[in-house]
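Two proteins, back to back. First:
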Amino acid sequence: MSEISATGHEPRTCDDALRRAFGFLGKRWNGILIATLMNGPAGFAELRCAIGGISDSMLSNRLSELAEANLVERLVDPGPPVSVSYRLTESGQALMPSLTALTAWAWENLPPSATD
């Protein structure tokens, strides 16, 4: 049986899956990295330049975290020269419609930040 709050209504709760999704995607740089990779595979330096303001160590940590979550995969081309790039996995690509809709919503509803 659910609890009734002092206002006489059932307390509101957030869906746990949505809480986990926003917790992970809302973590600094994760959502931005996924959105950047929506345009196709990119190398480390290309990602760093495209995003701006992210340190090499943070970028490396976030890419590892996204790979561990099976959203991004690391591709190694033995070369020569050896090159490494990153691309979205099928699970990462499944986020594209949601991120595209969120981008459209932000353009229509959020004012540009002072740093833009």
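And the second protein:
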Amino acid sequence: MPDVKLEIQMLHDRVMVRISPEDGERRSSGGIVIPATAQMAKRLAWGDVLGVGTNVRHVKVGDRVLFNPEDQFEVEVQGNTYLVMRERDVHATATERTDHGTGLYL
């Protein structure tokens, strides 16, 4: 029997996110290079939304979201790692279709 492909559908208020790749070392706004090994305070991460459950109201597939990656569940699908979280764990979204926002852009 050939391998059957099953579509993943998120349930309730769950969101599936792929973490955006990080460049390792970063530059501060003043031009100082910060190595990847530098000790930082808790840092939020950006990710791309790949799936949402039926009760998710403010996040859509394709949005970029800001969240704490340490508090989420990881799942591996076909060798790729994704995070699953509740919509309430998303701190912000970056999208083209906003009616109001902070005035900051990615």
